[in-house]
User: Fold this.
Amino acid sequence: MTSSNWHFDTEKSLVESHGLKLDEFEKIVEGLGREPNLTELGIFSAMWNEHCSYKSSKYWLKKLPISGERVIQGPGENAGVIDIDDGDVAVFKMESHNHPSFLEPYQGAATGVGGILRDVFTMGARPVANMNALRFGDPNHPKTKHLVSGVVGGIGGYGNCIGIPTVGGEVNFHPSYNGNILVNAMTVGIAKKDKIFYSAAAGIGNSVVYVGSKTGRDGIHGATMASAEFADDSEEKKPTVQVGDPFTEKLLLEACLELMKEDAIIAIQDMGAAGLTSSSIEMASKGNVGIDINLSKVPMRAANMTAYELMLSESQERMLMVIQPKKEELARCIFKKWDLEFEVIGEVTDTKKLILHMDGEEQASIPINILVEDAPEYQRDYIINDPSPLISFESKDFEDKDILSDLLKMISHPNLCSRKWIWEQYDHMVMADTVVRPGSDAAVVRVHGTNKGIAISTDCSPTYCRHNPYEGGKHAVVETWRNIVASGAEPIAITDCMNFGNPEKPEIMGQFVECIRGMGDACSKLNYPVISGNVSLYNETNGEGIYPTPAIGGVGLIRDLSNTMTIDLKNEGNVLCLIGESNNHLGNSHYLSIIQNREDGGTPSINLDDELKNGKFILDCVAKKLLKSVHDVGEGGVLIAIAEMCVSGEKGIKIDITKDFLHGYFYGEDQARYLVEVSQNKLEQLEVDAGKSAVKIERIGEIGGTSISINSIGEVELSSLIDHHTKWFNEF
Amino acid sequence: MKTHVIIFPGSNCDRDVAVAIQNIIGSSPEMVWHKDSAINQSDLIVVPGGFSYGDYLRCGAMASTSPIMKSVIENANKGVPVMGICNGFQILIESGLLQGALIRNSSLSFICRDIIIKPTNTKTIFTNKSTISKMPIAHNEGNYFANSNQIKEIEDNDQIAFQYCDENGDINAHSNPNGSINNIAGVFNKSKNVLGMMPHPERAAESIHGCDDGRNIFESLLS
Assistant:
């Protein structure tokens, strides 16, 4: 369809302002056999936008491995579910709230947390941990400071109030996010295997019940806004941002969990993006039934709301349920006890249609299959550009004597410095089950009332992805896997949050395709499936896309918490060893970016066989109680990882090694490596075991003293290291 | 020992303190909903931390008018031990059981980290086992304030329970996390059967917490 042969009564501009393409409108007319009214157009707009329909990404997402022996529920429900033994399950998902957080950072981030919490407790799980993955623009960009403090404040404001610990996350800064920050929030919950709740409506004639907050005019078209690019007028979209009320969410959480103990709920779905529209359609579609709703019954916060507004509002802290007829009164009492709205607004029907009434008049009648199965799906054109070329660096171009001054510069840089300023604004200990606090490789929370724990890590290196989307996609998965291994846990599964630019541009689609391919290869090799996730496209401002950012949230299980590992050095006299091969890969390293202000040299390639071998070796050593501390060698390379262990444990080290190319050794970002602390009397066994497993091991030095000293180079005092590590955020 | 933990809408440390009581005192507390009106016979009433009523209006202000608070006040006046932690401390102040005010942290941000406190008066039912202790704080409004007359009064009457200090027990500006006047972290009522404190002893109550110094407050109540 082109604009010249438009032959519908509906104004073309109305269609376009709903974010629908003209041929998509034609498809609607074809499906309905007539033109939609305004309410129906709004419903299609909400369901068919990129955010809700995954129309550009679905084809590729299907290529990811989603099953495994511990997977109970893969993608497609409110959150994924994995088996963590003894009848317990972990429920988790990560979701983006990028566009709203750029417009209004506090509320955008807060409602991001609120939304992902609801996704998890909708499944019947009590949320036990929040995590996040944040990207901001250049620290010197005029907006960055405001955005950082707003986002951190919003995440803390919501999580602290509802009383779920925010136990970790990741933050980085890069100019590619100047006009479009990324706020990805993840929640992990724990439930019983036989008490998982799903969204499929059932039982013709059963009541459809609305619970939670009243509906207002906030957030109308939020999901549609999140499916478009920003331009300079983006500020005008601020009214599409929702406002969060964590107190009401806390009440909703307790009320839902209380009701879930009774055999009352047949189906439950949170009202997230596209509110009442997506929740009712999702429930009907999954249950292969119809739903009738009387919109006059919806609890309203504002007067004279229209059907259109009620269906598209993204007011927070609301849920839709189908309840066992005999338990309706019981459910009403529970919600009343918690001072929440509870209203029967409709019923399950056999029409397989969504039918809406208001004030006695029919407002909409849409067959569910047109909305869901017939939703547009695109195989967009893509171009895969060659990865940035690898550069081989040579020792003659570097001065060994600069090693320690470079260390101080790097460790005080916004991308490598301590994030304590951030996590101290998050209550990371409420629920009293936090075993490993923020600042280690993975956060660990105890499964309440047991001696087992869940390890969680979020990660992605956008620079790696930009310069080699395939290896970058692999890396994001592997980095969380390694972090989980380093905490002594068996990695089980991941959730992903795919943040990319405009998919209608072939080179952006190419990045997406390649990242997925890399992620898929890593997940398959490591037996580490994707069980839930979210796609956020159109992260662009004025045509400038963000770096490809497939943020990964990984979860693992520690069967016995006494095997939990942390990064802080434990005892003087112990020996620090490096596990894994070092090949001086300085390309796209933090060293190059911070010290030489260059972004080139190529993304390190990841050998998945080595990852698996070295990771398994670490877990074997943990099980044999050979190790005192473990740290994954990640961003910044070996010396940064050593410094982090020293700072965290407040202990020095005497590094005693001889290398031809010290900068390459200390700051190269080769993969599949770990630093491990071992006591003198276990050192030999560790080395023998490494030999048997064909794992490379090198002694780095002996722990002790109040400085990091490197033979032949010099030393830097621990106190100076700590000052440099913490000062940037404190002065921010 | 018969113990009670009050639950307000928005309380979120009720379970944590119940677990600590179960582990240390040895029997599980009765959980009391804020709309209940009476607590008969208690050896300890805990008003837990959290965000009662979302901290809307003013921290603790709305919870202090809940039906159950009348009974908490009656019990306190009868000499029953009452302990308010974090938001519970704010509620006890708002209800008039304790003196002073808790205002916004001097940093203007929420603070969650370990701090060190020193018992100022160890001759009370709550503190007879207390020494210099490490435990977490997690609050936005923990900056204790009282005017000079009130400070003189609570000092003269040994009503200061805990003060923020450094590892050596020195009370100084560096060890004050939130700007509290005289580094005050907790106070008693006149008769020392009501304690309010900002730090969370229930989060430093077993080895996985990394520190179990918080136990001594519950152990003190046992002796």
